[in-house]
Amino acid sequence: MQDTFKALATVSLVTQARDCILRAITIGEFLPGQRLVEGEIAGRLGISRGPVREAARLLEQRGLLVSLPRRGFFVRAFEEKEIEDLYELRECIEVAAVRAAVSRASEAGLRSLGERHRKIISLTQRGREPELIEAIVAFHRSICVLSGNGRLIRLFDEIAIEVSQILSVLGVAVGDPGRPIEVQGSLLEALEARDSRRAAREMAHFIRHAKAEVMEHYRRRHPLEDGRPTQSPPPRPARGQVRNPANMKMGGQQ
Amino acid sequence: MQDTFKALATVSLVTQARDCILRAITIGEFLPGQRLVEGEIAGRLGISRGPVREAARLLEQRGLLVSLPRRGFFVRAFEEKEIEDLYELRECIEVAAVRAAVSRASEAGLRSLGERHRKIISLTQRGREPELIEAIVAFHRSICVLSGNGRLIRLFDEIAIEVSQILSVLGVAVGDPGRPIEVQGSLLEALEARDSRRAAREMAHFIRHAKAEVMEHYRRRHPLEDGRPTQSPPPRPARGQVRNPANMKMGGQQ
DNA sequence: TGCTGGCCAACTGTCAACAGGCCGCACTCT
DNA sequence: AGAGTGCGGCCTGTTGACAGTTGGCCAGCA
Predict the structure, then answer these.
(1) Cβ count within 10 A of residue A12
(2) Which residues have CB under 8 Å from A43's CB, separation 6+?
(3) Predicted confidence (pLDDT) at residue B254 exceeds the cutoff of 80
(4) Interatomic distance A228 CA / D14 C1' (Å)
(5) Looking at residue B34, which CATH number applies to its domain?
(6) Contact A167, A151 (CB under 8 A)
(7) Do B93 and B39 share a structural domain?
(8) To probe the interface with B, which of A16, A18, A151 has the most B CB atoms within 10 Å?
(9) A82 CB near a chain B CB, below 8 Å?
(10) What is the CATH number of the domain that holds B193?
(11) Residue B100: its chain A contacts at CB < 8 A?
(12) pLDDT-based confidence at A211, cuts 50/70/90?
Protein backbone atom coordinates (compact mmCIF):
# COMPACT_ATOMS: atom_id res chain seq x y z
CA MET A 1 0.00 0.00 0.00
CA GLN A 2 2.59 2.50 1.01
CA ASP A 3 4.56 1.50 -2.06
CA THR A 4 1.85 2.51 -4.45
CA PHE A 5 2.16 6.08 -3.31
CA LYS A 6 5.88 6.56 -3.43
CA ALA A 7 6.93 10.14 -2.99
CA LEU A 8 6.96 11.82 -6.35
CA ALA A 9 8.96 14.78 -5.14
CA THR A 10 11.66 14.34 -7.73
CA VAL A 11 15.08 15.51 -6.74
CA SER A 12 16.17 18.50 -8.74
CA LEU A 13 18.48 17.90 -11.65
CA VAL A 14 21.02 20.16 -10.01
CA THR A 15 21.24 17.89 -6.99
CA GLN A 16 21.57 14.80 -9.09
CA ALA A 17 24.20 16.33 -11.32
CA ARG A 18 26.11 17.50 -8.27
CA ASP A 19 26.13 14.03 -6.78
CA CYS A 20 27.24 12.47 -10.02
CA ILE A 21 30.16 14.83 -10.44
CA LEU A 22 30.99 14.48 -6.77
CA ARG A 23 31.11 10.72 -7.04
CA ALA A 24 33.21 10.89 -10.17
CA ILE A 25 35.68 13.09 -8.34
CA THR A 26 35.86 11.08 -5.13
CA ILE A 27 36.33 7.75 -6.84
CA GLY A 28 38.98 9.31 -9.00
CA GLU A 29 37.22 9.06 -12.34
CA PHE A 30 37.72 12.76 -12.82
CA LEU A 31 41.37 13.38 -12.13
CA PRO A 32 42.86 16.54 -10.65
CA GLY A 33 43.53 19.17 -13.25
CA GLN A 34 41.10 17.59 -15.64
CA ARG A 35 38.77 19.86 -17.53
CA LEU A 36 35.05 19.35 -17.20
CA VAL A 37 33.19 20.05 -20.40
CA GLU A 38 29.67 21.12 -19.54
CA GLY A 39 28.08 19.91 -22.72
CA GLU A 40 29.71 16.54 -22.42
CA ILE A 41 28.47 15.93 -18.89
CA ALA A 42 25.05 17.27 -19.72
CA GLY A 43 24.81 15.03 -22.74
CA ARG A 44 25.89 11.98 -20.82
CA LEU A 45 23.33 12.70 -18.12
CA GLY A 46 20.66 13.45 -20.67
CA ILE A 47 19.95 16.95 -19.39
CA SER A 48 20.84 20.45 -20.52
CA ARG A 49 23.80 22.53 -19.48
CA GLY A 50 22.00 24.79 -17.02
CA PRO A 51 21.71 22.37 -14.12
CA VAL A 52 25.21 21.10 -14.76
CA ARG A 53 26.57 24.62 -14.45
CA GLU A 54 24.72 25.17 -11.21
CA ALA A 55 26.02 21.90 -9.83
CA ALA A 56 29.54 22.89 -10.80
CA ARG A 57 29.10 26.18 -8.97
CA LEU A 58 28.18 24.30 -5.83
CA LEU A 59 31.30 22.20 -6.05
CA GLU A 60 33.35 25.25 -6.87
CA GLN A 61 32.29 26.85 -3.63
CA ARG A 62 33.27 23.68 -1.82
CA GLY A 63 36.70 23.96 -3.32
CA LEU A 64 36.47 20.75 -5.34
CA LEU A 65 36.41 22.56 -8.65
CA VAL A 66 38.03 25.74 -9.82
CA SER A 67 36.65 27.85 -12.61
CA LEU A 68 38.66 29.87 -15.08
CA PRO A 69 36.81 32.60 -16.91
CA ARG A 70 35.91 31.57 -20.43
CA ARG A 71 37.68 28.28 -19.91
CA GLY A 72 35.31 26.38 -17.72
CA PHE A 73 35.65 24.14 -14.68
CA PHE A 74 38.62 22.04 -13.68
CA VAL A 75 39.00 19.44 -11.00
CA ARG A 76 41.04 21.00 -8.30
CA ALA A 77 44.59 19.75 -7.99
CA PHE A 78 46.11 19.63 -4.54
CA GLU A 79 49.54 21.03 -3.91
CA GLU A 80 51.60 19.55 -1.13
CA LYS A 81 51.02 22.58 1.04
CA GLU A 82 47.28 22.36 0.58
CA ILE A 83 47.18 18.78 1.74
CA GLU A 84 49.14 19.74 4.83
CA ASP A 85 46.80 22.62 5.50
CA LEU A 86 43.80 20.39 5.07
CA TYR A 87 45.06 17.86 7.57
CA GLU A 88 45.96 20.60 10.01
CA LEU A 89 42.41 21.86 9.78
CA ARG A 90 41.08 18.38 10.11
CA GLU A 91 43.04 17.87 13.28
CA CYS A 92 41.73 21.05 14.80
CA ILE A 93 38.16 20.15 13.87
CA GLU A 94 38.18 16.61 15.05
CA VAL A 95 40.01 17.35 18.25
CA ALA A 96 37.40 19.94 19.05
CA ALA A 97 34.70 17.45 18.16
CA VAL A 98 36.01 14.74 20.42
CA ARG A 99 36.48 17.21 23.25
CA ALA A 100 32.88 18.28 22.94
CA ALA A 101 31.77 14.69 22.59
CA VAL A 102 33.44 13.77 25.85
CA SER A 103 31.30 16.18 27.76
CA ARG A 104 28.09 15.85 25.77
CA ALA A 105 27.76 12.32 24.42
CA SER A 106 24.94 10.26 25.84
CA GLU A 107 25.44 6.68 26.94
CA ALA A 108 23.37 5.52 23.98
CA GLY A 109 25.56 7.54 21.67
CA LEU A 110 28.67 5.91 23.05
CA ARG A 111 27.11 2.49 22.60
CA SER A 112 26.42 3.17 18.94
CA LEU A 113 29.99 4.37 18.57
CA GLY A 114 31.13 1.08 20.04
CA GLU A 115 29.00 -0.62 17.44
CA ARG A 116 30.84 1.19 14.70
CA HIS A 117 34.12 0.28 16.26
CA ARG A 118 33.23 -3.41 16.22
CA LYS A 119 32.38 -3.07 12.57
CA ILE A 120 35.83 -1.66 11.89
CA ILE A 121 37.39 -4.63 13.66
CA SER A 122 35.43 -7.16 11.72
CA LEU A 123 36.12 -5.49 8.40
CA THR A 124 39.82 -5.32 9.21
CA GLN A 125 39.96 -8.99 9.97
CA ARG A 126 38.21 -9.81 6.75
CA GLY A 127 40.51 -7.47 4.88
CA ARG A 128 37.84 -5.53 3.03
CA GLU A 129 39.63 -2.32 2.19
CA PRO A 130 36.95 -0.06 0.64
CA GLU A 131 34.31 -0.79 3.24
CA LEU A 132 36.93 -0.41 5.93
CA ILE A 133 37.73 3.12 4.86
CA GLU A 134 34.05 3.87 4.79
CA ALA A 135 33.63 2.47 8.28
CA ILE A 136 36.52 4.49 9.65
CA VAL A 137 35.07 7.65 8.17
CA ALA A 138 31.71 6.74 9.68
CA PHE A 139 33.36 6.27 13.06
CA HIS A 140 34.92 9.69 12.96
CA ARG A 141 31.75 11.26 11.69
CA SER A 142 29.91 9.72 14.61
CA ILE A 143 32.21 11.53 16.96
CA CYS A 144 31.29 14.78 15.28
CA VAL A 145 27.65 13.87 15.63
CA LEU A 146 28.19 13.18 19.30
CA SER A 147 29.70 16.62 19.65
CA GLY A 148 26.21 17.93 19.04
CA ASN A 149 27.49 20.72 16.82
CA GLY A 150 25.75 20.66 13.46
CA ARG A 151 28.18 23.12 11.95
CA LEU A 152 31.04 20.87 12.87
CA ILE A 153 29.36 17.94 11.19
CA ARG A 154 28.88 19.88 7.99
CA LEU A 155 32.49 20.91 7.95
CA PHE A 156 33.61 17.37 8.65
CA ASP A 157 31.63 16.15 5.68
CA GLU A 158 33.27 18.69 3.42
CA ILE A 159 36.70 17.77 4.62
CA ALA A 160 35.97 14.07 4.36
CA ILE A 161 35.17 14.43 0.70
CA GLU A 162 38.44 16.19 0.02
CA VAL A 163 40.35 13.65 2.04
CA SER A 164 38.83 10.72 0.23
CA GLN A 165 39.55 12.41 -3.07
CA ILE A 166 43.18 12.73 -2.08
CA LEU A 167 43.36 9.17 -0.83
CA SER A 168 41.86 7.78 -3.99
CA VAL A 169 44.04 9.84 -6.29
CA LEU A 170 47.20 8.97 -4.40
CA GLY A 171 46.15 5.37 -4.07
CA VAL A 172 46.67 5.36 -0.34
CA ALA A 173 45.52 2.21 1.36
CA VAL A 174 44.75 2.11 5.05
CA GLY A 175 48.14 1.53 6.61
CA ASP A 176 49.17 -1.36 8.81
CA PRO A 177 45.98 -3.24 9.61
CA GLY A 178 46.54 -3.24 13.32
CA ARG A 179 46.78 0.49 13.91
CA PRO A 180 43.40 1.96 13.18
CA ILE A 181 41.62 -0.47 15.44
CA GLU A 182 44.05 0.25 18.18
CA VAL A 183 43.79 3.99 17.86
CA GLN A 184 40.07 4.06 17.55
CA GLY A 185 39.83 1.62 20.42
CA SER A 186 41.79 4.03 22.60
CA LEU A 187 39.60 6.85 21.44
CA LEU A 188 36.54 4.91 22.42
CA GLU A 189 37.98 4.10 25.81
CA ALA A 190 38.86 7.69 26.45
CA LEU A 191 35.37 8.76 25.52
CA GLU A 192 33.82 6.16 27.76
CA ALA A 193 36.06 7.24 30.58
CA ARG A 194 35.11 10.85 29.84
CA ASP A 195 38.81 11.64 29.65
CA SER A 196 38.97 14.75 27.57
CA ARG A 197 42.72 15.17 27.45
CA ARG A 198 43.43 11.62 26.48
CA ALA A 199 40.73 11.62 23.84
CA ALA A 200 42.13 14.79 22.32
CA ARG A 201 45.62 13.37 22.39
CA GLU A 202 44.60 10.15 20.71
CA MET A 203 42.70 12.00 18.03
CA ALA A 204 45.58 14.32 17.30
CA HIS A 205 47.97 11.40 17.10
CA PHE A 206 45.74 9.53 14.74
CA ILE A 207 45.34 12.42 12.36
CA ARG A 208 49.02 13.27 12.40
CA HIS A 209 49.78 9.69 11.62
CA ALA A 210 47.30 9.72 8.75
CA LYS A 211 48.79 12.96 7.52
CA ALA A 212 52.31 11.61 7.58
CA GLU A 213 51.23 8.58 5.63
CA VAL A 214 49.49 10.65 2.98
CA MET A 215 52.37 13.06 2.66
CA GLU A 216 54.76 10.19 2.15
CA HIS A 217 52.61 8.87 -0.66
CA TYR A 218 52.46 12.32 -2.13
CA ARG A 219 56.22 12.81 -2.08
CA ARG A 220 56.78 9.39 -3.55
CA ARG A 221 54.45 10.40 -6.34
CA HIS A 222 55.83 13.89 -6.94
CA PRO A 223 59.51 13.58 -6.22
CA LEU A 224 60.74 16.31 -8.53
CA GLU A 225 58.34 19.05 -7.56
CA ASP A 226 60.10 19.64 -4.30
CA GLY A 227 62.23 22.54 -5.33
CA ARG A 228 60.35 24.38 -7.99
CA PRO A 229 57.29 26.49 -7.33
CA THR A 230 54.95 24.38 -9.51
CA GLN A 231 52.30 27.03 -9.57
CA SER A 232 50.13 26.67 -12.66
CA PRO A 233 46.64 26.79 -11.21
CA PRO A 234 45.35 23.77 -13.08
CA PRO A 235 48.50 21.85 -13.95
CA ARG A 236 48.17 21.54 -17.67
CA PRO A 237 44.49 22.09 -18.47
CA ALA A 238 44.50 18.85 -20.44
CA ARG A 239 42.02 19.81 -23.06
CA GLY A 240 40.33 16.61 -23.94
CA GLN A 241 37.58 14.21 -23.22
CA VAL A 242 36.87 12.76 -19.86
CA ARG A 243 38.58 9.56 -19.02
CA ASN A 244 35.79 7.11 -18.66
CA PRO A 245 32.82 7.97 -20.86
CA ALA A 246 30.59 5.28 -19.42
CA ASN A 247 29.75 4.67 -15.79
CA MET A 248 28.28 8.04 -14.92
CA LYS A 249 24.59 7.41 -14.65
CA MET A 250 22.05 9.55 -12.93
CA GLY A 251 20.77 8.88 -9.47
CA GLY A 252 22.84 10.04 -6.59
CA GLN A 253 21.13 10.87 -3.32
CA GLN A 254 18.91 7.79 -3.30
CA MET B 1 51.29 53.66 -20.00
CA GLN B 2 50.30 50.72 -17.90
CA ASP B 3 46.97 52.40 -17.41
CA THR B 4 46.16 52.46 -21.08
CA PHE B 5 46.09 48.70 -21.12
CA LYS B 6 43.88 47.98 -18.20
CA ALA B 7 42.77 44.39 -18.04
CA LEU B 8 39.54 44.06 -19.93
CA ALA B 9 38.80 40.69 -18.46
CA THR B 10 35.36 41.57 -17.26
CA VAL B 11 34.24 39.84 -14.11
CA SER B 12 31.58 37.29 -14.81
CA LEU B 13 28.01 38.23 -14.09
CA VAL B 14 27.81 35.36 -11.65
CA THR B 15 30.55 36.85 -9.51
CA GLN B 16 28.99 40.26 -9.57
CA ALA B 17 25.56 38.94 -8.74
CA ARG B 18 27.01 36.89 -5.91
CA ASP B 19 28.72 39.90 -4.42
CA CYS B 20 25.58 42.00 -4.69
CA ILE B 21 23.45 39.42 -2.93
CA LEU B 22 26.18 38.85 -0.39
CA ARG B 23 26.37 42.51 0.43
CA ALA B 24 22.62 42.77 0.66
CA ILE B 25 22.63 39.93 3.16
CA THR B 26 25.51 41.12 5.29
CA ILE B 27 24.25 44.65 5.62
CA GLY B 28 20.85 43.29 6.50
CA GLU B 29 18.95 44.50 3.47
CA PHE B 30 17.83 40.96 2.81
CA LEU B 31 16.47 39.74 6.10
CA PRO B 32 16.57 36.16 7.38
CA GLY B 33 13.67 34.11 6.12
CA GLN B 34 13.08 36.46 3.25
CA ARG B 35 12.38 34.97 -0.12
CA LEU B 36 14.64 35.90 -3.00
CA VAL B 37 12.76 36.20 -6.27
CA GLU B 38 15.16 35.42 -9.09
CA GLY B 39 13.41 37.48 -11.70
CA GLU B 40 13.27 40.47 -9.43
CA ILE B 41 16.98 40.43 -8.67
CA ALA B 42 17.86 39.73 -12.27
CA GLY B 43 15.71 42.59 -13.43
CA ARG B 44 17.16 44.98 -10.91
CA LEU B 45 20.66 44.02 -11.98
CA GLY B 46 19.76 44.18 -15.64
CA ILE B 47 20.76 40.60 -16.37
CA SER B 48 18.92 37.35 -16.90
CA ARG B 49 18.02 34.75 -14.35
CA GLY B 50 20.74 32.25 -15.20
CA PRO B 51 23.68 34.01 -13.53
CA VAL B 52 21.49 34.93 -10.58
CA ARG B 53 20.62 31.30 -10.06
CA GLU B 54 24.27 30.29 -10.19
CA ALA B 55 25.19 33.00 -7.71
CA ALA B 56 22.45 31.80 -5.41
CA ARG B 57 23.82 28.27 -5.63
CA LEU B 58 27.19 29.52 -4.49
CA LEU B 59 25.66 31.18 -1.48
CA GLU B 60 23.54 28.15 -0.80
CA GLN B 61 26.65 26.04 -0.50
CA ARG B 62 28.07 28.60 1.90
CA GLY B 63 25.01 28.20 4.03
CA LEU B 64 23.81 31.76 3.56
CA LEU B 65 20.78 30.75 1.52
CA VAL B 66 18.59 27.73 1.63
CA SER B 67 16.67 26.46 -1.35
CA LEU B 68 13.30 24.79 -1.25
CA PRO B 69 12.28 22.79 -4.32
CA ARG B 70 9.87 24.70 -6.48
CA ARG B 71 9.87 27.53 -3.96
CA GLY B 72 13.17 29.17 -4.57
CA PHE B 73 15.87 30.63 -2.36
CA PHE B 74 15.48 32.06 1.11
CA VAL B 75 17.88 33.95 3.29
CA ARG B 76 18.94 31.57 5.96
CA ALA B 77 17.53 32.24 9.40
CA PHE B 78 19.71 31.40 12.36
CA GLU B 79 18.31 29.44 15.25
CA GLU B 80 19.77 29.97 18.67
CA LYS B 81 21.51 26.62 18.53
CA GLU B 82 23.07 27.42 15.19
CA ILE B 83 24.58 30.62 16.47
CA GLU B 84 26.06 28.75 19.40
CA ASP B 85 27.47 26.11 17.09
CA LEU B 86 28.93 28.74 14.84
CA TYR B 87 30.73 30.47 17.68
CA GLU B 88 31.98 27.17 19.00
CA LEU B 89 33.45 26.45 15.61
CA ARG B 90 34.89 29.91 15.41
CA GLU B 91 36.60 29.45 18.71
CA CYS B 92 38.17 26.20 17.62
CA ILE B 93 39.34 27.73 14.34
CA GLU B 94 40.78 30.90 15.74
CA VAL B 95 42.45 29.22 18.66
CA ALA B 96 44.13 26.86 16.25
CA ALA B 97 45.09 29.81 14.09
CA VAL B 98 46.68 31.77 16.89
CA ARG B 99 48.54 28.68 18.09
CA ALA B 100 49.97 28.17 14.65
CA ALA B 101 50.71 31.86 14.34
CA VAL B 102 52.74 31.81 17.53
CA SER B 103 55.17 29.33 16.08
CA ARG B 104 55.14 30.52 12.49
CA ALA B 105 54.63 34.27 12.37
CA SER B 106 57.55 36.30 11.12
CA GLU B 107 58.67 39.46 12.86
CA ALA B 108 57.41 41.50 9.95
CA GLY B 109 54.05 39.77 10.23
CA LEU B 110 53.83 40.66 13.90
CA ARG B 111 54.66 44.27 13.13
CA SER B 112 51.85 44.52 10.64
CA LEU B 113 49.55 42.98 13.21
CA GLY B 114 50.62 45.66 15.63
CA GLU B 115 49.72 48.17 12.94
CA ARG B 116 46.22 46.81 12.79
CA HIS B 117 45.98 46.93 16.53
CA ARG B 118 46.88 50.60 16.58
CA LYS B 119 44.18 51.21 14.03
CA ILE B 120 41.66 49.54 16.31
CA ILE B 121 42.72 51.79 19.13
CA SER B 122 42.43 54.94 17.10
CA LEU B 123 39.04 54.00 15.73
CA THR B 124 37.80 53.18 19.19
CA GLN B 125 38.85 56.56 20.50
CA ARG B 126 37.14 58.28 17.66
CA GLY B 127 34.04 56.12 18.17
CA ARG B 128 33.60 55.04 14.58
CA GLU B 129 31.54 51.90 14.99
CA PRO B 130 31.33 50.41 11.49
CA GLU B 131 35.00 50.86 10.67
CA LEU B 132 35.87 49.56 14.08
CA ILE B 133 34.09 46.29 13.46
CA GLU B 134 35.83 46.04 10.14
CA ALA B 135 39.19 46.65 11.77
CA ILE B 136 38.61 44.04 14.43
CA VAL B 137 37.68 41.49 11.80
CA ALA B 138 40.81 42.44 9.87
CA PHE B 139 42.89 41.96 13.00
CA HIS B 140 41.57 38.47 13.53
CA ARG B 141 41.91 37.65 9.87
CA SER B 142 45.53 38.69 10.04
CA ILE B 143 46.12 36.13 12.73
CA CYS B 144 44.73 33.48 10.41
CA VAL B 145 47.03 34.75 7.70
CA LEU B 146 49.96 34.54 10.08
CA SER B 147 49.04 30.93 10.74
CA GLY B 148 50.13 30.26 7.20
CA ASN B 149 47.24 27.90 6.61
CA GLY B 150 45.30 28.91 3.51
CA ARG B 151 42.45 26.58 4.29
CA LEU B 152 42.06 28.16 7.67
CA ILE B 153 41.86 31.60 6.09
CA ARG B 154 39.15 30.50 3.70
CA LEU B 155 37.13 29.05 6.53
CA PHE B 156 37.60 32.17 8.60
CA ASP B 157 36.25 34.27 5.76
CA GLU B 158 33.16 32.11 5.50
CA ILE B 159 32.53 32.29 9.19
CA ALA B 160 33.17 36.01 9.28
CA ILE B 161 30.42 36.60 6.76
CA GLU B 162 27.94 34.63 8.80
CA VAL B 163 29.00 36.38 11.96
CA SER B 164 28.63 39.81 10.46
CA GLN B 165 25.22 38.85 9.12
CA ILE B 166 24.18 37.83 12.61
CA LEU B 167 25.60 40.97 14.15
CA SER B 168 23.89 43.23 11.69
CA VAL B 169 20.54 41.49 11.96
CA LEU B 170 20.63 41.49 15.73
CA GLY B 171 21.93 45.02 15.82
CA VAL B 172 24.81 44.13 18.06
CA ALA B 173 27.25 46.95 18.59
CA VAL B 174 30.77 46.30 19.73
CA GLY B 175 30.44 46.10 23.48
CA ASP B 176 32.13 48.28 26.04
CA PRO B 177 34.70 50.30 24.15
CA GLY B 178 37.54 49.36 26.45
CA ARG B 179 37.43 45.61 26.11
CA PRO B 180 38.38 44.78 22.54
CA ILE B 181 41.53 46.87 22.65
CA GLU B 182 42.49 45.27 25.88
CA VAL B 183 41.89 41.74 24.67
CA GLN B 184 43.54 42.23 21.34
CA GLY B 185 46.40 43.94 23.05
CA SER B 186 46.93 40.88 25.23
CA LEU B 187 46.71 38.70 22.18
CA LEU B 188 49.36 40.75 20.50
CA GLU B 189 51.59 40.61 23.54
CA ALA B 190 51.25 36.86 23.79
CA LEU B 191 52.11 36.49 20.14
CA GLU B 192 55.14 38.70 20.47
CA ALA B 193 56.24 36.72 23.50
CA ARG B 194 55.61 33.52 21.53
CA ASP B 195 53.49 32.35 24.40
CA SER B 196 51.22 29.77 22.81
CA ARG B 197 49.15 28.91 25.86
CA ARG B 198 48.42 32.48 26.78
CA ALA B 199 47.55 33.39 23.21
CA ALA B 200 45.15 30.48 22.97
CA ARG B 201 43.59 31.41 26.29
CA GLU B 202 43.10 35.04 25.34
CA MET B 203 41.58 34.07 22.03
CA ALA B 204 39.17 31.62 23.60
CA HIS B 205 38.15 34.19 26.18
CA PHE B 206 37.54 36.81 23.56
CA ILE B 207 35.34 34.60 21.44
CA ARG B 208 33.39 33.30 24.38
CA HIS B 209 32.80 36.85 25.46
CA ALA B 210 31.62 37.77 21.97
CA LYS B 211 29.39 34.73 21.90
CA ALA B 212 27.82 35.56 25.23
CA GLU B 213 27.12 39.06 24.07
CA VAL B 214 25.50 37.90 20.85
CA MET B 215 23.44 35.27 22.59
CA GLU B 216 22.14 37.84 25.03
CA HIS B 217 21.05 40.03 22.15
CA TYR B 218 19.42 37.05 20.54
CA ARG B 219 17.48 36.09 23.64
CA ARG B 220 16.40 39.65 24.18
CA ARG B 221 15.09 39.60 20.64
CA HIS B 222 13.41 36.20 20.75
CA PRO B 223 12.18 35.88 24.29
CA LEU B 224 9.21 33.61 23.63
CA GLU B 225 10.91 31.04 21.45
CA ASP B 226 12.68 29.50 24.39
CA GLY B 227 10.31 26.69 25.04
CA ARG B 228 8.80 25.72 21.76
CA PRO B 229 10.65 23.94 18.96
CA THR B 230 10.27 26.79 16.45
CA GLN B 231 11.20 24.60 13.54
CA SER B 232 9.70 25.90 10.31
CA PRO B 233 12.68 25.93 7.94
CA PRO B 234 12.13 29.41 6.63
CA PRO B 235 10.05 31.08 9.31
CA ARG B 236 7.08 32.14 7.26
CA PRO B 237 8.16 32.24 3.60
CA ALA B 238 7.03 35.84 3.44
CA ARG B 239 5.92 35.88 -0.15
CA GLY B 240 6.48 39.36 -1.28
CA GLN B 241 8.81 41.91 -2.67
CA VAL B 242 12.22 42.58 -1.31
CA ARG B 243 12.50 45.28 1.24
CA ASN B 244 14.54 47.93 -0.39
CA PRO B 245 14.12 47.93 -4.15
CA ALA B 246 16.76 50.56 -4.73
CA ASN B 247 20.35 50.51 -3.61
CA MET B 248 21.46 47.27 -5.19
CA LYS B 249 23.63 48.29 -8.03
CA MET B 250 26.10 46.16 -9.89
CA GLY B 251 29.75 46.15 -9.15
CA GLY B 252 30.92 44.25 -6.15
CA GLN B 253 34.47 42.93 -6.15
CA GLN B 254 36.05 46.24 -6.89
C1' DT C 1 63.75 25.12 -39.75
C1' DG C 2 61.59 28.35 -36.84
C1' DC C 3 58.35 31.96 -36.39
C1' DT C 4 54.22 34.77 -37.52
C1' DG C 5 49.65 35.45 -38.62
C1' DG C 6 45.09 34.12 -39.84
C1' DC C 7 41.41 30.69 -39.79
C1' DC C 8 38.42 27.33 -37.60
C1' DA C 9 36.21 24.39 -34.41
C1' DA C 10 34.83 23.93 -29.74
C1' DC C 11 33.13 25.56 -25.74
C1' DT C 12 31.59 29.02 -22.42
C1' DG C 13 28.58 32.88 -20.88
C1' DT C 14 24.23 34.62 -21.36
C1' DC C 15 19.58 35.09 -22.67
C1' DA C 16 14.68 34.31 -23.81
C1' DA C 17 11.01 31.12 -23.78
C1' DC C 18 8.25 27.14 -22.27
C1' DA C 19 6.19 23.88 -19.11
C1' DG C 20 4.65 23.01 -14.73
C1' DG C 21 4.04 23.64 -9.64
C1' DC C 22 2.59 26.55 -5.71
C1' DC C 23 -0.15 30.01 -3.53
C1' DG C 24 -3.91 32.91 -2.80
C1' DC C 25 -8.62 33.86 -3.75
C1' DA C 26 -13.23 33.42 -4.75
C1' DC C 27 -16.96 30.40 -5.18
C1' DT C 28 -19.89 26.59 -3.86
C1' DC C 29 -21.80 23.24 -1.02
C1' DT C 30 -23.04 21.49 3.40
C1' DA D 1 -20.40 30.05 8.97
C1' DG D 2 -16.92 26.77 7.74
C1' DA D 3 -14.72 23.60 4.81
C1' DG D 4 -13.66 21.98 0.38
C1' DT D 5 -12.83 22.90 -4.62
C1' DG D 6 -11.55 25.01 -8.85
C1' DC D 7 -9.24 28.92 -11.13
C1' DG D 8 -5.64 32.13 -12.30
C1' DG D 9 -1.30 34.48 -11.69
C1' DC D 10 3.36 34.29 -10.30
C1' DC D 11 7.48 32.08 -10.12
C1' DT D 12 10.73 28.20 -10.57
C1' DG D 13 13.13 24.48 -13.21
C1' DT D 14 14.73 23.46 -17.50
C1' DT D 15 15.69 23.87 -22.21
C1' DG D 16 17.55 25.42 -26.70
C1' DA D 17 19.75 29.02 -29.12
C1' DC D 18 23.09 32.70 -29.98
C1' DA D 19 27.19 35.47 -29.58
C1' DG D 20 31.90 35.88 -28.21
C1' DT D 21 36.25 33.96 -26.89
C1' DT D 22 39.86 30.61 -26.54
C1' DG D 23 43.26 27.61 -28.17
C1' DG D 24 44.97 24.73 -31.85
C1' DC D 25 46.14 24.07 -36.61
C1' DC D 26 48.06 25.22 -40.87
C1' DA D 27 49.88 27.92 -44.48
C1' DG D 28 53.12 31.47 -45.58
C1' DC D 29 57.47 33.69 -44.88
C1' DA D 30 62.11 34.79 -43.29
Answers:
(1) 16
(2) none
(3) no
(4) 47
(5) 1.10.10.10
(6) no
(7) no
(8) A151
(9) yes
(10) 1.20.120.530
(11) 88
(12) very high
* Candidate from A50, A150, A154 with C-beta closest to B50: A50
pLDDT in tens, A52-80: 999 999 999 999 999 999 999 999 999 99
Mean pLDDT across B237-243 = 38
Domain presence at residue A187: yes
Cβ contact (<8 Å) for B57 and A62? no
CA distance B188 to chain A (A): 22
Question: Given this model, what pLDDT does residue A253 score?
Answer: 41
Read off the pLDDT band of A163 (50, 70, 90).
very high
Higher pLDDT, B230 or B130: B130
Is the domain of A97 the same as that of A111?
yes
Q: Is the pLDDT of residue A26 over 70?
A: yes
The pLDDT value recorded for residue B181 is 79
- A106 and A49 in a common domain: no
Boundary of a domain, candidates A28, A46, A75: A75
Contacts of A200 in chain B (CB under 8 A): none
- If asked whether residues B189 and B129 sit together in one domain, one would say yes
Q: How far is the CA of B1 from the C1' of C4 (A)?
A: 26
Task: Please tell me if residue B157 touches chain A, with a CB cutoff of 8 Å.
Answer: no
The answer to whether A53 contacts chain B (CB < 8 Å) is yes
What pLDDT was estimated at residue B240? 37
Judged by a CB distance cut-off of 8 A, whether residue A39 touches chain B is: no
Is residue A246 a part of any domain in this protein? no
A252 within a domain of the structure (yes/no): no
For the CA of B78 and the C1' of C17, the distance in angstroms is: 37
Number of independent structural domains in chain A: 2
Q: What is the domain extent for residue B27?
A: 13-75
Contact A152 B85 (CB under 8 A): yes
Cβ distance A88 to B50 less than 8 Å, yes or no, reads no
